[in-house]
Specification:
The two termini are about 30 Å apart. Helix content is about 50%, strand content about 15%. It has two domains: about 5-105; about 115-195, no CATH class. It is of the alpha+beta class.
Length: about 200
Amino acid sequence: MASDRQVVELFHLHFVRLLCAGPDKDHFAVKGGCNIRFFFESVRYSEDIDLDVTDRVPVHVLKEKVSRILEAPALSLPLRSRGVKVSNFTAPKQTETTQRWKVSLSAAGHSSKRRDVFDLGVLVAKAGGRVDALRPVPSLIPAAVERVMAVTHADFKSQVASYLQPEHLAAHDSPEAWEALQLQVTDYLERARAPGRRHER
């Protein structure tokens, strides 16, 4: 299963391919993190696409072109073959100097819910640390570990805390407590990937 960063990069590659496929391709230049990764082989993934556009492309023309690409089968079909789809997009800023789109992606097996980390912590405790249920899917564990560690305490506060009673929230309300829960969950996942490692109490 691809990581969240790999899903975003898959979208970036297909989108740039379509944007630069027409007769007006010389009017666009990829810059920033995507440029460095795609053309200079940087190991760092980029969160978004930055483009320079010549003044020969009016604002409304680029807005319409991007909307067509985001809705086109030429984008959705190759993404779908990898279990990815564009679930929503908006164009919150469209001025003569800056045009910005926000695109939401969804992928099979990617719930992207911060509360999943908390729920895993509950399941780990209920299972007494037993990892047998995860051993049939070892290939999924590295991406799961990466995603668990990517969830910040701020994410927890914004998306999980409001679902807890005050007496339960107190036990998780500090960055240190959240980090301890992350480490507990990742330890559980790592032991599932290493069958020879025994759980010790």
